[in-house]
């Protein structure tokens, strides 16, 4: 009887594991089915989508850069960092031109089988990831200095120092993003997938560490900044009641600081919400298998994010809004000068 019971138990376990295997096979088949559906778009449709998205990214970020360069009220130190971020987003749009060729069967095979083309294309993406992440930290740190040291800010952060800091961030981003080119595990039979060719220490170590450490640091700075500007806003309400002429400039400046902090915190929030899923899915893809559909979806969100900041600037900053209106509608800026604008100045 004991033998019979043992035999029955083994049979049940075998059935259980067999059922699990079938379930896993079903899940894998489901993933492959989804991937086939995503890959079933005709090349003309893929190219059309790429052209629309890259045009939106290039146009919106070019407008941001030109607005800062041509409008005196926007030529401020904080906007130097905003322009650096816009350049990074602009380059993401330009990099989509290379993606267009992956939608053409004749060039897609070359791009996948050419080690140089594969590593350069993917390294550019990681350079821009690092640059966008560092730009967020620099913007937050600049606002922190302005709030923490309002009287000394202009002496601490000059335009020359800001330019040097931005240049250093580009150097760090390029150095960081090109590391995989010298340490990759590229194999022509694997194809051009970062989660397959880049080393583990980079994909599940350095890359997520850089993103989340810098994001946490930026978040902490913004929390401090928002607390400080909320306190300032309460002071504004008290000063507006009994403020003399001499205090009105200070009241107006604190309003600007509050508005600028809200806008930049929203820019950071959008950045984190759009980029973090791709970083997390990249780690999961390297450690446990996840469908490439998720990488495609998360990558699409990141790409679309590159055109979002323009909308934030236009909605929350009157100087940007007027600059965009002048460039797009040929409006005379002298007829629409703002009063009490939210300007990213010191």
Task: Kindly list the characteristics that best describe this protein.
0% strand, receptor, transducer, globular, GPCR_Rhodpsn_7TM, mainly alpha, G-protein coupled receptors family 1 profile domain-containing protein, disordered N terminus
Structural class: mainly alpha
Largest β sheet strand count, sense and barrel closure: none
Beta fraction: under 5%
Beta-strand segment tally: 0
Could you give the distance between the termini?
Answer: 87 Å
Tell the overall outline: globular
Low-confidence blocks of residues: 1-32, 335-343
Q: What percent of residues adopt helix (DSSP H or I)?
A: over 70%
Give the mean pLDDT.
Answer: 77
Rounded to an integer in angstroms, the radius of gyration calculated over CA atoms is 26 Å
Number of contiguous helices: 13
- Write the H/E string, N to C: HHHHHHHHHHHHH
Organism: Batillaria attramentaria
Membrane topology: Multi-pass membrane protein
Protein name: G-protein coupled receptors family 1 profile domain-containing protein
Keywords: Cell membrane, G-protein coupled receptor, Membrane, Receptor, Transducer, Transmembrane, Transmembrane helix
